[in-house]
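Fold this complex.
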Amino acid sequence: MSDSQELPQRGPADGAGADADAAVLLAHVARGDQIAFEEVYDLMAGPILGMVRGVVRDVAQSEEVMQEVLLDLWRTASRFDSSKGSAMAWVMTLAHRRAVDRVRSEQKSAERELRAASAQIDYDDVTEAVEATIDRERVRRCLRSLTDLQRESVTLAYYGSYSYSEVAGLLGVAVGTVKTRMRDGLIRLRDCLGVE
Amino acid sequence: MRRGQSDLHTLAGAYALDAVPDGDRARFERHLGRCEACAQEIRGLREATARLGASAAVRPRAELKTQALRAIARTRQLPPLTRDDAPARPGWRARPGGGRAVSRLRQRPWVPRLATALAVGFLAVAVGMGVLAIGARHQVAQDQDRGHAIAAVLNASDVIMLTARVTTGGNATVLESRHEHSLVFTASGLPALPPTRSYELWLMGPGGTRPAGMLPRPRAGMIGPMVVSGLAAGDRMGLTVEPAGGSARPTSAAILILRLAS
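Structure:
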């Protein structure tokens, strides 16, 4: 976890050859560096939009949410602390909360039920026809290593924006069981992906 | 608090998935402030959910970038939090003992796309050379082989990325596939050497240390990509400075030692 992360060096002489380092880029963004923001955009906009589309579905709304997230990122970059996780995790956490808020504020139960019905195919849906990443196949493989209940609990919550009690209702299992499966499932996913 | 600790603790998964209603969320976040193990667990689970989300990346329409750049140019930024401020983002709280451990070695499974871009760039160059260097078929074939070897590593299902600082300056990035028994090495910002010296790569394993190739001279500060094949279990990768022709065994202290995935 924190010890697998290197702190960005915030001196002006850093960054040489380390342009790949999103954490360093964020430190520059925090100082108002618009060029660094552009690099962060190139690195993060695709993952953000992909995830948000999985949650929000509507393309135009997803683009709006992505823009909100990027603006958030610009405004709050100074609050990012690389000792507490990777830059990508920080950004994706911001983005997922925004996306979930957007869906919940709709409060259109009919739409959400529709989403529930298709939640199982969400993941494949989302990952089709998009730019290839080395990561994708591994994430799929790791998702497959979860039990059905773990996988359903995780994907319904993550892409369906359901609370754990709603997931329990949808799957017809006890609330306590769903909480446990979400945790076990994510732990297994984390271990399978080799992230800490 | 009415609920027991262990019951609260099982909320970690739901919390990391943003699947906790507001009331529970506030309660869990108070708990996080007191439970370092829980905060640590949340950080790990957030890395996992982020990977889940990021793996579905799509390419945004080009106009969106222009819009985003325009928007930030007219938006004020928040100052950093000071010590006295409450943490803005629960789940990212400071460790009381200071979790500031710094490792030279990072696994950054996110970033392979950058390396892919790099390799694609290399392939493009190799292809370009195929067009230009009509008389140099042998060179082209070699470049194509190398491009192919790089592609094999990058497309391996188990590829991982390691980055490290070189002690004398600069950064090394390695993409490794155990399955392919190969790695792709690139570096940037390494100090220039006199003509009589060169950088040499090594594989260091239980069976001894073997030379793994001389690094080419940097171009615009960048070196590689270079393919190293024949990785064995327990191997580490080392980098030393050697006489220009290379050595059969290291003759100076390693300026980089990278523990490879086993």
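The radius of gyration of chain B is 24 Å.
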